[in-house]
Specification:
CATH superfamily: Carboxypeptidase-like, regulatory domain
Order of helices and strands: HEEEEEEEEHEEEEEEEEE
Distance between the termini: 77 Å
Number of helices: 2
Number of domains: 1
Radius of gyration: 24 Å
CATH topology: Immunoglobulin-like
Length: 240
């Protein structure tokens, strides 16, 4: 090999050895996981929604499917600042969570959805016809530290719920009694903690809970026509 060729080879080798992979400036995606529960009445264990399609309202390209246990996991791009998780499944109404402000990973994101038959029955108890032009809002006012993953009642009794801004149209709030039935005679939450505001004009709203001596998280909900919004524990109106 000629001296010139040797110098060229040596130069290339030194250059290659000196190269380093530049660190990526792209932030890592957020990991989101949770479970899809089929809402049931007392005495019947929660079912799991299998094969449900879970997507993100603000990033529709992100989606996954619940497994045989109703569990799901997905990666949310770090560029997504807010996320509302949506589930569609055969035999269930389309439903979604509250709207999350994304600051990191999320665990135990829950869907709590009655099947079509129970959904119709609950509307009958409320003596209303659900409007396809409105949304149905549901949440749970929850005792500090409790969630849907805990056995037994987990509601903060004696609280009231308000919605802001006031929708042009709505029916409620109606509070669930201890038998987990919406009861128009109640003026505040029972130990179930559930509350429904029916046939709400589409829009973005803030839900707040109120009780002397107790502070609660507030939640933002994106009310869409024909959709059930259930901000279920541990991401409902949680006592602090």
């Amino acid at each position: 090999m000629s001296p010139i060729r040797c110098l060229l080879v040596a130069s290339l080798l030194l250059t290659a050895c000196g190269e380093e992979t530049a660190p990526s400036d792209e932030p890592s995606p957020h990991q989101v996981s949770g479970d899809a529960f089929a809402f049931t009445l007392p005495g019947t264990p929660y079912g799991r929604i299998m094969g449900g399609r879970v997507s993100v309202l603000e990033a529709p390209e992100v989606e996954t499917t619940t497994d045989d246990e109703g569990h799901f996991a997905l990666e949310l791009p770090a560029t997504v600042a807010q996320a509302t998780f949506v589930i569609t499944a055969d035999g269930f109404p389309e439903a979604q969570t509250k709207t999350f402000d994304i600051t990191g990973d999320l665990e135990r994101v829950t869907f709590q959805v009655p099947d079509d038959s129970l959904y119709t029955s609950l509307a009958g108890v409320l003596q209303l016809t659900t409007s396809p032009d409105h949304c149905q809002l549901v949440t749970t006012v929850t005792v500090v530290g409790k969630s849907i993953y805990d056995a037994g009642a987990h509601g903060e009794a004696g609280a009231t719920v308000t919605i802001d801004p006031a929708p042009a149209e709505m029916d409620g709030p109606v509070y669930f009694n201890s038998a987990v039935i919406p009861d128009r005679t109640r003026t505040d939450t029972s130990d179930d903690g559930g509350v429904v505001i029916a046939n709400v004009t589409p829009g973005t709203y803030t839900l707040s809970a109120h009780k002397d001596g107790v502070s609660f998280e507030t939640i933002t909900v994106a009310c869409r026509a024909g959709v059930l919004v259930n901000a279920s524990p541990p991401y409902g109106l949680q006592a602090l």
